[in-house]
């Protein structure tokens, strides 16, 4: 009789409920570790796009300053921006990365030699904005996380 009980029938082949529960617990622990790491990598990508957009805007501003204008205006419309001067009223147009917006302080026009701050903010709620403070009189640029001071 014992031999008959120990003998498995073909229809009894498979996993027990305990084995399935152990596998589910292992998978849930691995997911709990991996999901936050993925979210941090995604936020890092958003911040990298903000920094890249700041670099592009600063490069555009430096290129139009070669003409030695007296004032500078940065207009933003959705995902694009235009840098205009009194020398070049048509200006130079650029495009921001998807989900990014640009703001300028003080409100343009900015006089030559006046310090200003450019801020790029991503639409994703958990991503910090990045800003660049430019002081032409001191010939300095500072890139930092957070809103413009």
TrEMBL record:
Pfam families (UniProt xref): N_methyl
Keyword Membrane: yes
GTP-binding among keywords: no
Provenance organism: Acidothermus cellulolyticus (strain ATCC 43068 / DSM 8971 / 11B)
Official protein name in the record: Secretory protein
Record's keyword terms, sorted: Membrane, Transmembrane, Transmembrane helix
Regions crossing the membrane: 20-39
InterPro entries (UniProt xref): N_methyl_site, Pilin-like
